[in-house]
Amino acid sequence: MQVLTGADKLFQGEPFVATVSDSLKQDILPGCMVLLSAKKGNGRVAIGYILALMPFESEEVPTIEILDVLHGGRPVLNPALMQLTEWMADYYLTRRIDTLMAALPAAVRTTVHDVVEIKHFTLNAEAPKVINTALRRAIMQLMIREKRLTVHQLQQRIGRKQLYRTLSELERGGHLQLTKRFSSTKAKQKSCYRLSLSLPENAEESLKNSPKQLEAIKILASFGNTFAFAETIGSSRETLNALVKKGFVEKSQMAVTSHFTTGFSETPQSTKTPTASQQKALEQLTHAVTQEEYKTFLLHGVTGSGKTLIYIELLKKVLAAGKTAIVLVPEIALTPQTAGRFREHFHDDITILHSAMSNQEKYDAWHSLRLGKTKIALGARSTIFAPLENLGAIIVDEEHDSAYKQDRNPRYHARDTAIMRAMFSKAICVLGSATPSFESYNNAVKGKYTLINLPERVDGATMPAITLVWMKGSPKASASISELLYSQIALRLEKNEQVILLQNRRGFAGSIFCLACGHIPLCPFCNIPLVYHATPKQLRCHYCGHAIHFTESCMKCSSSNLFYKSSGTERIEEELQTLFPEEKILRMDVDTTSAKGSHGRILKEFHDRKARILLGTQMVAKGLDFPAVTLVGVLMADIGLNIPDFRASERTFSLLTQVAGRAGRSSLPGEVYFQVYNMENDVFTALLQKERSYEKFFLQESALRKELHYPPASRLIKFECSAEEENQAEAAALYCKKSLELQLPAEKGRVLGPAPAGIAKIRGRYRYHILVKLFDGKLSPPFIKQMSDDIIARFRSSGVLFSIDVDPQNLM
Ligand SMILES: Nc1ncnc2c1ncn2[C@@H]1O[C@H](COP(=O)(O)OP(=O)(O)OP(=O)(O)O)[C@@H](O)[C@H]1O
Ligand SMILES: [Zn+2]
């Protein structure tokens, strides 16, 4: 018998053939995790995964042997997941071992923490039946004495490595229990604070010029003697550390428990009856589940159309049919409200997976899903690999979010992987969004997916009215806030309603944005913003390499007021505070949300209406549902358009639609103000459409994409060569281009580059890109493997690193 396995370290991760003894043979299945050893050599033991079983044909006897089978002999990857990892390796042009590892939590892939405990076993009359071999006797005698040992200790005491199979037999007999125990000594420690016991009398007085520090002191006073984390106090670490320096506050370290908490909870909402359009969508979806056939739906529902209720009702039906489900969200921390709503409905039937879990919790969660104890897995990207059997549905919420793409190897897209998993499992896949990705919408238009439209908000709530504020021609209340927006904010505060303000992402520092007219110079061939290069003074396209002379003035209006220096959220917070001195302002950006649970805390405060203004970066655009928000304002709404990425318009449109959608979600109507520099941009023309603005934008933008062969009119593959020496990176990229051109006839695709990456140098390495636009078909994995090996071998001495990104989301 011959077995094809993949192991991480042996054979550089390429699959290889191993032998298995006759006695172990019947216990081995594809998807099993096994212990391997080299027959000759140092007897090193490694972990591998069984890819396939096949008869032994070659003359040459393999040198690797399978010693034992782990996890009780049950495959760690079920057939659908095996198929999925195979598809991923093939589609994303990466090694199978990388996709296998991506599909298993690290906590599952190790044996270091395996523990054996004795269960029900005494030396009674039945005992001889159990301990009927020398090995069983040795194990049970040791276990009776010790009660609990690590597998490693057992192996040493008995002097044998192959114990797993016998241990699992004893476990199946109910005599032993085999588990993983991760030491809890490594619990994360975090800084915590309390008021100094020797606080000077005049502390408050001396802090009157530092309002944040003063506030922190006041909150800490209410905690008495107990230590608290920065996010519980609601102050930044900088503020607290400044107080520590002054001797007003004491600092200590405390272990963090990693129990799941979004830091956000709402009182459970009363059960809602689906509206007629929700019901119609639901019927279509439930019908498909009962068919037990693969099908993908695109649920295109405007903001506030009640998609979450449809998901929840669908999941109830899936569970009732005895099936399981996966729910993907872009990032748990950013969407505590959504995660909370699911939990409220499914309690113990749902496992919420998140990155702050300890290894033990991750292992336990995996184990309970694998045993079918919990039926629904909810989490970010990697939750798509949840070890569930009998899948009925996979839901991908906010399917347009680029967080679904992993930006390290394997560079998979969780949405596309979800569709494939549904296909292999004969389940349905539901993609939901108010602003679907163009790829998904195009598939729906072509009939590959079934489109379900929800064009209206629930309960008669209306879509918010949008107004553009042209910054150049408008009076300003402060450096970044127009009179108009200011007066609108004041109006809402008067009515005791709430306001969300979005400080759009910092524009891309390397490209040009005219502060007078909003003009952004573009590559005439690629239609993406050109990037500034200092020597020689040029603007260059980082897709095709096209370069023009740069004159330091706007090519449209000749203004020299060009470089946009970002004004961060902190500065805007100050401006707002000056305009509304009495008002408490919540700020949500990377600085205020670095601590765990802090998103949830900020949102909870806003939800409880302890503050009426929430200011933040893109984070405030995601899925929030607060009925009292009647005004949304966006500062520099067009700045994201200067990012040198062909998706810049799509992303800006989507961000602005999403953030606008936070307004007027209840009976109170909402209004939205976008502060812009260039009113004429197509994105705004589309946003101002009262009806079907997404569809109109999609049509208009798709035509442009088609002309230049951008997705969804083609598929992109990005190749990156990086090196410490710029010319080496470029030479490797050029070699890559030549190899690709030989392989790709003109009617099949185009090869662009080499061009320096948008961010040309990262951590001392120069980066060059080759971009392939594939019109149809795909690149053959063996050819790509050959080419990568070739490039690596050729440029080994200059330390060139080579990577491939299929369907890249980030082209910087
Ligand atoms: N049938 C219903 N009856 C009453 N209220 C409902 C109903 N369905 C949904 N809602 C409420 O409508 C609001 C919007 O729903 P939800 O948050 O699911 O919208 P959404 O489609 O996910 O929007 P977005 O894309 O903006 O996140 C929520 O407060 C929800 O509780
Ligand atoms: Zn170009």
TrEMBL record:
<dbReference type="GO" id="GO:0006302">
    <property type="term" value="P:double-strand break repair"/>
</dbReference>
<dbReference type="Pfam" id="PF18074">
    <property type="entry name" value="PriA_C"/>
</dbReference>
<feature type="binding site">
    <location>
        <position position="541"/>
    </location>
    <ligand>
        <name>Zn(2+) 2</name>
    </ligand>
</feature>
<dbReference type="GO" id="GO:0016887">
    <property type="term" value="F:ATP hydrolysis activity"/>
</dbReference>
<dbReference type="InterPro" id="IPR001650">
    <property type="entry name" value="Helicase_C-like"/>
</dbReference>
<comment type="subunit">
    <text>Component of the replication restart primosome.</text>
</comment>
<dbReference type="InterPro" id="IPR005259">
    <property type="entry name" value="PriA"/>
</dbReference>
<dbReference type="InterPro" id="IPR040498">
    <property type="entry name" value="PriA_CRR"/>
</dbReference>
<keyword id="KW-0378">Hydrolase</keyword>
<dbReference type="InterPro" id="IPR042115">
    <property type="entry name" value="PriA_3primeBD_sf"/>
</dbReference>
<comment type="function">
    <text>Initiates the restart of stalled replication forks, which reloads the replicative helicase on sites other than the origin of replication. Recognizes and binds to abandoned replication forks and remodels them to uncover a helicase loading site. Promotes assembly of the primosome at these replication forks.</text>
</comment>
<keyword id="KW-0862">Zinc</keyword>
<protein>
    <recommendedName>
        <fullName>Replication restart protein PriA</fullName>
        <ecNumber>5.6.2.4</ecNumber>
    </recommendedName>
</protein>
<dbReference type="InterPro" id="IPR041222">
    <property type="entry name" value="PriA_3primeBD"/>
</dbReference>
<dbReference type="Pfam" id="PF00271">
    <property type="entry name" value="Helicase_C"/>
</dbReference>
<feature type="binding site">
    <location>
        <position position="554"/>
    </location>
    <ligand>
        <name>Zn(2+) 1</name>
    </ligand>
</feature>
<feature type="binding site">
    <location>
        <position position="544"/>
    </location>
    <ligand>
        <name>Zn(2+) 2</name>
    </ligand>
</feature>
<dbReference type="GO" id="GO:0008270">
    <property type="term" value="F:zinc ion binding"/>
</dbReference>
<feature type="domain" description="Helicase ATP-binding">
    <location>
        <begin position="288"/>
        <end position="454"/>
    </location>
</feature>
<dbReference type="InterPro" id="IPR027417">
    <property type="entry name" value="P-loop_NTPase"/>
</dbReference>
<keyword id="KW-0067">ATP-binding</keyword>
<keyword id="KW-0347">Helicase</keyword>
<feature type="binding site">
    <location>
        <position position="517"/>
    </location>
    <ligand>
        <name>Zn(2+) 1</name>
    </ligand>
</feature>
<dbReference type="InterPro" id="IPR036388">
    <property type="entry name" value="WH-like_DNA-bd_sf"/>
</dbReference>
<feature type="binding site">
    <location>
        <position position="523"/>
    </location>
    <ligand>
        <name>Zn(2+) 2</name>
    </ligand>
</feature>
<keyword id="KW-0479">Metal-binding</keyword>
<feature type="binding site">
    <location>
        <position position="514"/>
    </location>
    <ligand>
        <name>Zn(2+) 1</name>
    </ligand>
</feature>
<comment type="similarity">
    <text>Belongs to the helicase family. PriA subfamily.</text>
</comment>
<feature type="binding site">
    <location>
        <position position="557"/>
    </location>
    <ligand>
        <name>Zn(2+) 1</name>
    </ligand>
</feature>
<dbReference type="Pfam" id="PF17764">
    <property type="entry name" value="PriA_3primeBD"/>
</dbReference>
<keyword id="KW-0235">DNA replication</keyword>
<keyword id="KW-0547">Nucleotide-binding</keyword>
<dbReference type="GO" id="GO:0006269">
    <property type="term" value="P:DNA replication, synthesis of primer"/>
</dbReference>
<dbReference type="Pfam" id="PF18319">
    <property type="entry name" value="Zn_ribbon_PriA"/>
</dbReference>
<dbReference type="InterPro" id="IPR014001">
    <property type="entry name" value="Helicase_ATP-bd"/>
</dbReference>
<feature type="domain" description="Helicase C-terminal">
    <location>
        <begin position="549"/>
        <end position="705"/>
    </location>
</feature>
<dbReference type="Pfam" id="PF04851">
    <property type="entry name" value="ResIII"/>
</dbReference>
<dbReference type="GO" id="GO:0006310">
    <property type="term" value="P:DNA recombination"/>
</dbReference>
<dbReference type="GO" id="GO:0006270">
    <property type="term" value="P:DNA replication initiation"/>
</dbReference>
<feature type="binding site">
    <location>
        <position position="526"/>
    </location>
    <ligand>
        <name>Zn(2+) 2</name>
    </ligand>
</feature>
<dbReference type="GO" id="GO:0003677">
    <property type="term" value="F:DNA binding"/>
</dbReference>
<dbReference type="InterPro" id="IPR041236">
    <property type="entry name" value="PriA_C"/>
</dbReference>
